């Protein structure tokens, strides 16, 4: 005013009551008609409403800036009429631009990563042409060179159908994308681990009853996702009825805190109705009061493991049974060996006492009873030796079909007319090497056992055929070697046996027959004979389903011998002694004395030795004559084979005859005798002694050698 210049100002005033208000004062100098300054004229306008609106706008802009910064959301606006692009502070912060940076459309698009630029250009073009808004997640490269993920949102504003403005927002989602990537990788690792372990996953909401079942869980029971209800009953109704009570009790104990963990094995029904063994593990989540509200875990198919465990248990039981039978066999063999010595003394003395007695002499008749009792005892001893695989044997190469066929008439008489006997054999049946008498024992005992299992009428079937046993089969049967075998099967339609009976049927003196109907040695003898011949015997039986025995005998590479060929080679008799000197070596005093008396009665001179050392001393004595050595095999200090080797070294060509209660082939396996030696089995009769001594002195081939 002092300078006489126009002015316009907005000033804050106060009303009479003290309330503020804003006015705009506009003034200009006034001149008179002569052009001289006459004063000022001013206009005052109340602009309080405008000031308040501007202040509210500034407050809203400040609030928007603060909330945008907190939410990491920035705005942008492009005026299509002027080309001016405006970024909010948060948008500038996201792009990490300096304060003097002026954004343009091309510079803004240039911030997007190279692979993202075509995407954002296409979004803008569709918005301009079709009015489509966009909402995409892309990567940008900030002013400082860092990569960031942003959510870019935009739309087009139109006026009279023409686009006039583009506006939108930016949100920094780098941390969210990183978290999502971590979650995705964790999920992938989890799924890889789950699929790698072949486990199915379940997640049970105990408040709603809903259960999540993973695709692998469904696959375990033969279903695809969506084919079964996702509820708890889907699980519980598939548990085997025998396993469900125990599983529910275990789960209840876990949820109520009585057991520390939920781990259960049970049978689970598949889609086809079959059952598989499953293993389930689970963990419960509990609220502040310890009440479970959610439980999750895994489930896997362990059928193969359970079957392997079952097979291992069966194999272990079989091995334990074999070990038990071996132990019993060793005990039985030892008892039978000592008993044979005693029987030899009894039978030998009976034979000596009966010489010179008239046939009707009461003493002779009494001695006959003693002899018969001793012979029956010898039969029992032979059965024990058969079980312990120490029965004297003369193996031959047998035609199995012809041998069994030759026994059919006898077997039919054994089983009677009410039981049918069927005999078949397959082509290609191999030769087996076995003592014919042992084969007869095996066949007879099995058929008699089958007969006794049939109450009234029924059928016994005998079949023989070739079979190749592989390593897997032999691995579960101790001592059996893979190769070609003949399989002899004896089956009956009898009442069958319980599992607890099957576990003991091959043990000596075990029998289910009534008192007086059996000794309990029949099947034990069969077992021993089969094992002695390097074979195996299996049995299958169930109550009401009959019993089947399968005997596996090794095939022989040689053709079968003609019937009676071996018997023809045996000597038909023996010559009396001519005073030859027999050196008898036996550590059982009574048997030593008896053997010398029997030899002397046969016309031989004897020299008795109770130990191998005494025998060597006799042989070394000057002028001592020895024509034959008859020695026991099993003796303390030195066995019979070692003694024979020393004696023949001193006296080359000296014949030796071995005697024992064990079999020749068992002794050979112990390394004490070679195959083909001359052997006399205890207990022996006077006639058997005469024949074997005569053979040895005459140089005849050993019987059965």
The helix/strand class is: alpha+beta
Low-confidence stretches: 564-572, 700-705
What is the CA-atom radius of gyration, in angstroms?
55 Å
Mean pLDDT: 84
**SS strand fraction:** 25-35%
Number of helices: 22
Oligomer: single chain
Shape: rod-shaped
Q: What is the first-to-last residue Cα distance?
A: 156 Å
Helix content: 40-55%
Side-by-side strand order of the widest sheet? 5-4-8-7-6
Largest sheet properties: 5 strands, antiparallel
The count of β-strands is: 25
In a nutshell, what does this entry contain?
By secondary structure, this protein is of the alpha+beta class. 40% of the residues lie in helices and 26% in strands.
Can you give keywords for this protein?
alpha+beta, 22 helices, rod-shaped, 25 strands, 5-stranded antiparallel β-sheet, 705 residues
Overview of the molecule:
It is a single chain. With 705 residues, the chain is α+β, with helices and mostly antiparallel strands. It has 22 helices and 25 strands. The strands form six sheets. Strands 5-4-8-7-6 form a five-stranded antiparallel β-sheet, with helices on both faces. The protein has a five-stranded antiparallel β-sheet with strand order 10-9-13-12-11, sandwiched between helices. It has a five-stranded mixed β-sheet with strand order 15-17-18-20-19. Helix 13 runs antiparallel to helix 16 (522-532). The radius of gyration is 55 Å and the shape is rod-shaped. The N and C termini lie far apart (156 Å). Mean pLDDT is 84; it is low at 564-572 and 700-705.
């Amino acid at each position: 005013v002092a300078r006489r210049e126009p002015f316009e100002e907005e000033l804050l005033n106060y009303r009479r009551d003290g309330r503020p208000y804003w006015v705009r004062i506009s003034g200009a100098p006034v001149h008179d008609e002569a052009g001289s300054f006459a004063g000022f004229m001013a206009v005052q306008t109340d602009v309080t409403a405008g000031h308040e609106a501007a202040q509210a706008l500034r407050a809203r802009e400040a609030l928007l800036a603060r909330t945008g910064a907190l939410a990491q959301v920035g705005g942008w606006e492009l005026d299509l009429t002027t080309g001016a692009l405006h970024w909010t502070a948060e948008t500038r912060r996201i792009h990490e631009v300096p304060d003097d940076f002026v954004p343009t459309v091309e510079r803004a698009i240039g911030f997007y990563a190279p692979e993202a630029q075509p995407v954002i250009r296409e979004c803008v073009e569709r918005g301009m042409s079709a009015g489509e808004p966009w909402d995409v997640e892309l990567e940008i490269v900030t002013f400082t060179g860092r990569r960031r993920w942003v959510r870019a949102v935009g739309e087009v504003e139109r006026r009279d159908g023409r686009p006039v403005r583009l506006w939108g927002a930016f949100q920094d989602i780098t941390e969210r994308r990183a978290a999502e990537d971590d979650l995705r990788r964790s999920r992938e690792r989890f799924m890889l681990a789950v699929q790698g372990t072949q486990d199915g996953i379940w997640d049970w909401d105990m408040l709603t009853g809903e259960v999540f079942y993973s695709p692998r869980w469904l696959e375990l029971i033969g279903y695809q996702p969506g084919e079964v209800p996702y509820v708890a009953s889907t699980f519980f109704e598939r548990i085997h009825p025998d396993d469900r009570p125990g599983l529910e009790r275990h789960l209840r104990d876990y949820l109520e805190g009585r057991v520390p963990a939920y781990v259960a094995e049970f049978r689970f029904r598949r889609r086809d109705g079959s059952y598989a063994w499953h293993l389930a593990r689970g963990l419960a989540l509990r609220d502040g009061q310890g009440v479970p509200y959610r439980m999750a875990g895994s489930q896997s198919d362990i059928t193969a493991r359970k079957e392997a465990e079952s097979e291992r248990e069966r194999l272990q039981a079989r091995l334990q049974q074999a070990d038990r039978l071996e132990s019993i066999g060793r005990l039985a063999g030892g008892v039978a060996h000592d008993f044979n010595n005693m029987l030899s003394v009894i039978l030998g003395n009976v034979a000596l006492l009966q010489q010179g007695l008239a046939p009707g002499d009461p003493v002779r008749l009494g001695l006959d009873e003693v002899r018969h009792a001793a012979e029956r005892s010898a039969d029992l001893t032979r059965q024990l030796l058969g079980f312990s695989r120490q029965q004297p044997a003369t193996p031959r190469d047998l035609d199995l079909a012809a041998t069994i066929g030759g026994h059919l008439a006898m077997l039919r008489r054994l089983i009677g007319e009410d039981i049918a006997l069927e005999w078949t054999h397959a082509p290609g049946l191999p030769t087996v090497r076995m003592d014919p008498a042992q084969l007869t024992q095996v066949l007879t005992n099995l058929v008699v056992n089958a007969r006794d299992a049939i109450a009234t009428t029924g059928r016994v079937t005998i079949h023989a055929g070739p079979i190749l046993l592989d390593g897997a089969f032999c691995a579960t049967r101790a001592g059996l070697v893979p190769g070609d075998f003949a399989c002899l099967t004896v089956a009956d339609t009898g009442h069958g046996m319980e599992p607890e009976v099957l576990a003991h049927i091959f043990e000596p003196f075990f029998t289910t027959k009534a008192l007086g109907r059996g000794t309990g040695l029949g099947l034990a003898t069969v077992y021993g004979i089969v094992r002695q011949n390097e074979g195996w015997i299996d049995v299958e039986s169930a109550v009401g389903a009959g019993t089947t025995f399968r005997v596996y005998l090794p095939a022989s590479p040689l053709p079968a011998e003609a019937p009676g060929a071996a018997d023809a080679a045996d000597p038909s008799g023996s010559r009396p002694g001519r005073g030859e000197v027999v050196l008898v070596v036996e550590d059982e005093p009574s048997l030593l004395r008896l053997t010398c008396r029997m030899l002397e009665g046969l016309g031989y001179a004897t020299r008795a030795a109770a130990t191998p050392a005494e025998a060597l001393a006799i042989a070394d004595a000057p002028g001592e004559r020895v024509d034959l050595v008859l020695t026991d095999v099993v003796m303390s200090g030195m066995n019979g084979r070692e003694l024979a080797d020393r004696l023949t070294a001193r006296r080359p060509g000296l014949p030796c005859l071995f005697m024992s209660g064990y079999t020749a082939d068992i002794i050979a396996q112990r390394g004490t005798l070679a195959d083909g030696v001359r052997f006399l089995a205890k207990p022996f009769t006077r006639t058997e002694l005469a024949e074997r001594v005569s053979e040895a002195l005459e140089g005849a081939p050993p019987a059965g050698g």
